[in-house]
Design a protein that fits this description.
The complex is a heterodimer of chains A (286) and B (322).
Chain A: H1 2-19, E1 42-44, H2 47-55, E2 62-64, H3 89-94, E3 99-103, H4 109-117, E4 121-125, H5 130-144, H6 147-166, E5 172-180, E6 183-186, H7 191-198, E7 201-203, E8 212-214, H8 217-222, E9 227-230, H9 235-239, H10 248-251, E10 255-257, H11 270-284
Parallel strand pairs in A: 1-2, 1-3, 3-4, 5-7, 5-9, 9-10
Antiparallel strand pairs in A: 5-6, 6-8
Helix pairs in contact in A: 1-5, 1-6, 5-6, 6-11
Chain B: H1 2-19, H2 27-34, H3 40-75, H4 87-100, H5 108-128, E1 129-130, E2 134-135, H6 137-161, H7 164-174, H8 183-202, H9 204-210, H10 214-219, H11 224-246, H12 252-264, H13 268-292, H14 301-321
Antiparallel strand pairs in B: 1-2
Helix pairs in contact in B: 1-3, 1-13, 2-3, 3-8, 3-11, 3-12, 3-13, 4-5, 4-6, 4-7, 5-6, 5-11, 8-11, 9-13, 12-13, 12-14, 13-14
Classes of the chains: A alpha/beta (286), B mainly alpha (322).
């Protein structure tokens, strides 16, 4: 049920925003966006926006990325400017960009202001979930003068999400773990939690509003997740620890490990991530 | 009489540590679960999680408090604590290196942290040995701080240069806690801690002499150099073992010995066992609070030891000044 609501919510956002052409464009930091001539030299400072820019066909206009941007493979050919949070402003400006795409965060405010002062265009995007992806796609599509492309990407995403989640009727539960020593669970405000939802898995730590939180193994055991989904590491390293055997899912071998950036940031590969997670879960299911 | 009271308090605290947890389990169910009856999850929670955590917290807290007391006597500095001798830096560096190398086995972090702290111990020890045999406590103090700072900077470099998430995980582990507690870790720690603890208790009387100063101690018949070496090696190994099973838990080793000195006198033969019991109780209580105060979220146990320890300590200090 929740999944269907989510799909229709994304559908509705796209419908509404499509009709609101007149509203002034703003980025996620409330900065007005002036759609003038499309940028020619873009620096993208987060893995999600780099991948999005490639999807929008602007990969050849990228002149800088962060050291963590590995998708698509073509991104690796673009010079890295280092970190995306608190980036090295001098290195960013040395690429002579006419647009810098930031991850919108308080930590980035000083860098954003310094780059704005040089007269370079700046866009801050908080790209954490699929709703954000739709909004960011539309915004960057406008800036790049590629609205047709962005609209079709959004349509494809909607269809893809629909198809990938349609078969997942049997609802089970899961605990999503970012780390195991100590156990750090992923809360509802995280992309992986959203993917799990589409894959038919309720996050047993839905009450944790933050992206992640440290919990005790006892709490994990008591919530009785049907599956344990690890964002890194191996199932073996969990099974080796006797204290983790208090958790039913560990004792009964229902541990799944997900690898790849399609599980860590929102992208148009989300439907593929949903299908992959569902397949992995069915492999170890009771 | 005092010992009886302390013993009963310890017992109550340990029982409380098993009864209290983020999930509600009744006293009857806990009792059944200890005997092995009840459903799988409850038995697992009570026997493998709560009981092991409480016992490990007690053993680690006691060891840290004893170590702190011994080191304060050794370097004759009230600020001494178990991590003073560069151990935390060495352990941290070991843990961060393990994670950077992608070692993820259950024992990878504790083992490399242990090796890291041993390396730090060896370097500091070599620094502090002057004129052939004698340990100079001032150099020990300085060497420990400097080696710790050096290791911490290397750790900072690793953190700045590695993929962030992994290394942040190592830092979290290092912050300290008992989520790694199991019967295996408990057995390993117990095996490991017995000898250093016995050695520290054995040199208790010499510590009283040492507290007077090295020259008077020598005149009163103590083999000062041997005592200092024994102390140093036993305290270091004990702390390294504590770091390996529980990360770095501040404050217990600093505050507990002072609190006991203020209330129970300075005699080390009494101070050391009392420090063990009180330190153990403090960590069991702190861990129970860390698990339950903001459930389902868990606090770092070091935060709780400071939050409980500081007000108690301040009260004691005030009373002592008056």
């Amino acid at each position: 049920m929740i999944r269907w609501l989510a799909v229709s919510a994304i559908l509705m956002t796209s419908a509404c925003a499509g009709g609101e052409r007149a509203a002034p464009l703003q980025d996620d930091g409330g900065r007005p966006i002036v759609v003038a001539r499309p940028p020619e030299r873009i620096v993208s400072l987060s893995p999600a926006t780099t991948e999005l820019l490639f999807a929008l066909g602007a990969g050849d206009r990228l002149v800088g990325r962060t050291r963590f941007d590995e998708d698509p493979a073509a991104a690796l050919a673009i010079p890295s400017v280092g970190d995306g949070l608190q980036p090295n402003v001098e290195v960013v400006l040395a690429t002579r960009p006419d647009l810098v795409v930031f991850y919108e965060a308080v930590a980035n405010t000083p860098a954003i202001e310094r780059i704005e002062q040089t007269g370079t265009r700046v866009v801050g995007l908080r790209l954490d979930g699929l709703d954000d992806l739709v909004r960011a796609t539309r915004l960057l599509g406008s800036i790049l003068g590629a609205r047709d492309r962005s609209d079709s990407l959004i349509d494809d995403l909607r269809v893809g999400l629909d198809a990938a989640s349609q078969a997942n009727r049997a609802v089970d539960s899961a605990a999503l773990l970012a780390w195991t020593e100590p156990p750090i669970v992923i809360g509802r405000a995280s992309f992986l939690s959203e993917i799990a939802g589409y894959a038919g898995l309720d996050n047993v730590f839905d009450d944790v509003a933050r992206a992640s939180a440290t919990v005790s193994i006892e709490t994990l055991a008591a919530r009785r997740p049907g599956f344990l989904i690890l964002g890194r590491g191996s199932a073996e390293s969990v099974r080796q620890r006797p204290q983790w055997h208090a958790i039913d899912a560990v004792r009964e071998g229902r541990i799944v490990v997900v690898h790849g950036t399609h599980f860590s940031h929102p992208s148009f590969r989300a439907p593929a991530a949903i299908r992959e997670l569902r397949a992995l879960v069915e492999q170890v299911a009771r | 009489m005092r010992w009886w009271v302390l013993g009963v308090v310890c017992l109550l605290v340990l029982v409380g540590g098993v009864l209290i947890g983020p999930t509600a389990i009744s006293v009857g169910e806990v009792w059944q679960a200890i005997a092995g009856r009840g459903d799988h999850a409850t038995v697992g929670i009570v026997r493998d999680l709560r009981l092991t955590r409480a016992l490990l917290a007690f053993a680690v807290g006691g060891s840290l408090a004893v170590t702190g007391a011994a080191l304060q006597a050794l370097v004759r500095n009230p600020l001494a604590d178990p991590y003073l001798l560069g151990l935390s830096g060495g352990a941290g560096l070991g843990a961060v290196v393990a994670v950077s190398l992608g070692l993820t086995g259950a024992w990878a972090l504790p083992m490399t942290a242990f090796v890291g702290s041993l390396l730090a111990i060896v370097v500091v020890y070599r620094l502090a040995i002057v004129a052939g045999q004698a340990i100079d406590p001032r150099v020990l103090l300085l060497g420990g701080v400097v080696v710790g700072a050096f290791a911490a900077s290397l750790m900072g470099a690793f953190i700045a240069l590695s993929p962030a998430a992994e290394v942040r995980g190592a830092m979290l582990w290092l912050l300290g806690g008992f989520s790694g507690a199991s019967w295996t870790t408990l057995a390993v720690f117990a095996l490991y801690a017995v000898t250093p603890l016995a050695l520290l208790f054995a040199v208790g009387r010499s510590l009283d002499l040492l507290a007077l100063g090295e020259e008077p101690a020598r005149l009163l018949g103590a083999d000062v150099e041997r005592v200092k070496r024994t102390l140093y090696v036993a305290a270091s190994l004990l702390t390294a073992a504590a770091v390996a099973v529980a990360g770095i838990i501040g404050f217990v080793g600093l505050v507990v010995p002072h609190a006991i000195r203020l209330t129970w006198g300075h005699t080390h033969r009494r101070l050391l066992p009392a420090a063990f019991l009180v330190g153990g109780c403090l960590l069991v209580v702190a861990d129970a609070l860390a698990r339950t105060a903001f459930a389902p979220l868990e606090l770092p146990v070091g935060v709780v030891t400071a939050v409980i320890g500081v007000p108690v300590f301040v009260t004691l200090l005030r009373g002592w000044q008056e």
